[in-house]
Amino acid sequence: MTTQDTTSSVPNKRGSSALQMGPRKKASSSDPLVSHGRHFGRTVFALCNYPSLLTNGVLRLEQIEDIPLEDFPAEERREHRVFEQLLESYPGLLERLKDGSEEEILHVGELIGKGAAGARGDDTKTLKSAILDWISPKGEAIRPPLHRNSKIDRGFNHDLTGSLLCPAGLDWNDPQTKEKLRSGEMLVCGDQWPIFLYAHHAYDPEDPWCGLLRSRLLVYAYKHVFTSPSSVDREPKATRSGNARLHGMNSVTIASLAYIATQVRFALSSSSVFSRTDTTTDSETFYHSLLDLLEDPEEYKEIDELLTWWNRQVFPTSSAAKRPISANSALSKIRQKRMALKQASNPVSS
């Protein structure tokens, strides 16, 4: 953390960070912002206090006329990036906020928050049951059985879910480790990532990026939420109006990966209610820790490769999938000819 992060001279007119889940509020009005909030929460920032995000953002717009955004603390810079993404994604929102009263700003935030919370609740409900189909051994039933409508026997209480939630680097098959996790003697913080995040559930401490966020379980959950439950084990039908299609989404976002990972982790846990105060699942810390990595510019190469891999899994026909050009295609021949002409006109001197 830089000095300016800890000793910022920026006046603090705001309360706690908006990038934390606020108290639950009801927004009864029907508004397009509710639908927008559903998608925004899934794909840009999920666990957010939207009324505070908007209030803080409007105040900060005035402040950055005199103070560069770089002079604000790191948490406020991230919060403002989320605020700007929200403004960019909803035409006319900035004018509505600037022209509106404080009550109007809070109301808009509650509508967006209602959508985000509603989507999160719907996904939590459907994944609770679907996850059992995906983790069942092929051709076998889960032993002992796990209930679809109750989660009390999940988490570290069951060998199957426990093995998936076991923090990478620990050995679930070690009796002492298993007992400490089950008894709570060994507490698992949100930034201790579970092994299910890794492809084939294999973690290499010498190369912790290898296979990270590329597990089959995550792909199934992502398709279930964004392209439709029926697309999990096959290509999505063009006639299906999944969440991605409804919102014009044709590529995977960083935040959507963190969101799905958080949902899968919660579905495997024994916690029954998704709550910001649940220290057992510590979902907010988990979500934020993934975003911290995926938004780190120094990890650009790995992140770019990860997103390309994901787009091939979920949106294979999208340009974001970056598929190589077919060797014998007309496009390939045109590119080869252009390259040959370019080399002929610019010979390399010996």
Q: Can you describe this structure?
A:
Residues 1-19 have a biased composition (Polar residues). The chain has 350 residues and is mostly helical. It has 2 domains: 3-116, no CATH class; 136-321, no CATH class. 50% of the residues lie in helices and 0% in strands. Helix 9 crosses helix 11. The model is unreliable at 1-9 and 23-29 (pLDDT under 50).
How would you concisely characterize the structure shown here?
InterPro entries: DUF6698 (IPR046521). Helices cover 50% and strands 0% of the residues.
Write the SSE topology:
Layout: H1 3-6, H2 32-43, H3 50-63, H4 74-89, H5 93-99, H6 102-135, H7 159-165, H8 175-183, H9 216-226, H10 243-246, H11 254-268, H12 283-294, H13 300-314, H14 330-345
Helix pairs in contact: 2-6, 3-4, 3-6, 6-9, 6-11, 9-11, 11-12
Q: Give average pLDDT, whole number.
A: 87
Q: For the terminal residues, how far apart are their CA atoms?
A: 50 Å
Uncertain stretches of 5 or more adjacent residues: 1-9, 23-29
Please describe the biggest sheet, giving its number of strands, its sense, and whether it closes into a barrel: none
Structural domain tally: 2
- The dominant shape is globular
Order of helices and strands: HHHHHHHHHHHHHH
- What is the tally of beta strands? 0
Number of helices: 14
Class per helix and strand makeup: mainly alpha
Determine the strand fraction and express it as a percent band. Answer: under 5%
> Cα-atom Rg, whole angstroms?
23 Å
| Helix percentage range | 40-55%
Biased composition (Polar residues): 1-19
Region (Disordered): 1-34
InterPro entries: DUF6698
